[in-house]
Hints:
- It is a single chain.
- The protein is α+β, with helices and mostly antiparallel strands and 356 residues long.
- The protein has three domains: 5-183, 2-Layer Sandwich (Beta-Lactamase), CATH 3.30.450; 198-288, Beta-Lactamase; 291-356, Orthogonal Bundle (Arc Repressor Mutant, subunit A).
- Helices cover 46% and strands 22% of the residues.
- It contains 14 helices and ten strands.
- The strands form two sheets. It has a five-stranded antiparallel sheet with strand order 2-1-5-4-3.
- Strand 8 (259-263) and strand 9 form a beta hairpin.
Amino acid sequence: MSLRASDxxxxxxxxxxxxxxxxxxxxxxxSVGRLHDLVAADVIAFHDVDFVYVRPAHPEVTEVRAYYEFxxxxxPPDAEETEAACRDAYPLxxxxxxxxxxxxxxxxxxxxxxxxNDFYRELMHPVAIEHEAMTSLPxxxxxxxxxxxxxxxxxxxxxxxxxxxxxxxxLTYLLRRVRDEERAAGxxxxxxxxxxxxxxxxxxxGPDDRxxxxxxxxxxxxxxxxxxxxxxxxxxxxxxxEQRFRARAPEIGAPPEPLVIERGRTRLTMRYxxxxxxxxxxxxxxxxxxxxxxxxxxxxARETEVLQLVxxxxxxxxxxxxxxxxxxxxxxxxxxxxxxxxxxTRTAAIARAFPx
Length: 356
C-alpha cells in the first residue's frame, strides 16, 4: 500500500504549521492538534516520560518531562494509582526499545487477550477506548517519547500507520530543535544574570567581527569606551586578529593577552575567549565603585540602573538601548523614581539618590 497525493499534501501542511513552534508547549499543542487532520482519532496525546526499571520489564515513572492530551479524557480520581499498578500490562510498552516506529494494539495483542488485559479493563474500557496506535520517536533506554492515538470504534488502518511513520523524522527533528532553543535561551538568561550581577560585559562575535549578541554591561561598556555600529571598532579588530593568531599557534609560546583601554579614572580590560563554535570578548571595568542609593529610598533595581545610566549623561533612547527596552519604559522608570525621591528633574534625582 502507498500513500496518495492528498496524504502528502496533508503531511506538508502539517509540517508547515509545525515549523512555527518555537518552544515545547507550542510544539506539543500544534503537533497534537494538527495530527487530528492527518489521522482521525478521538484522543491524541504526547508524552515524554523517564522510567526506571526496578526489575526487568517492570518500569516505574520517575519524571514526566512533558505531557499534552487533546481532548482531555475524564478520568476517575484514582486513575494515577491504577495506571501505576497496571503500567507494565500495557501492550504497546512491551515492544518499547527506543527505536522510531508506529505500532497498533492489534499488532501486538489479539482482541480476546486484550479484553483480559488489566490495563485495558481498568483504564481503557471505562472511557470507551478500544483501539490505540503509538508513534514512538527515537529515545534512549528508560525514556519513552511518543504520540498515542486512541479510538472508540474502528482500528487504525495501514494507511494511518504509513502517514504516522512518514512524519516521525520531522517530529524528531523539530522536537530536538525546540529543546535546543529552550536550552540556549536558558543559558543566555543565566549568562545575562551572572554578568550583570558582577558588573561584567560579554560580546558574542559572528562572521566579519559582527557583534551578534551582548550580555550584562557589554553594550554599555563598548559604547562608553569605543562607540560601535554593530561591528567591533577598529582597535578591537586589530587586537582580535593578534589574539586569533596566538590561539592558533600555541607552540610559539605567545599566550593571549588582554586589551586595556583607559578613560579618566577608569579602565576597560577586554579578554578574548575562543571556543570550538564561537568567539566572545569579556569586558571588565576597573575604577571607582558604582554608586548605590540608600535602600530606605525604596528604589527598585531597574530604577537604580536607569538613574545610573542617565547620571552618566545618556539620553532615554541610549539608556533604553543599553537595557534592551523601549524609551517609554525608561521614561516610566524615571517618573516612578522622581515620585519616590520627591523631585522633578534628572539632576535633582541623581543628587538625591547618590549624594556621595
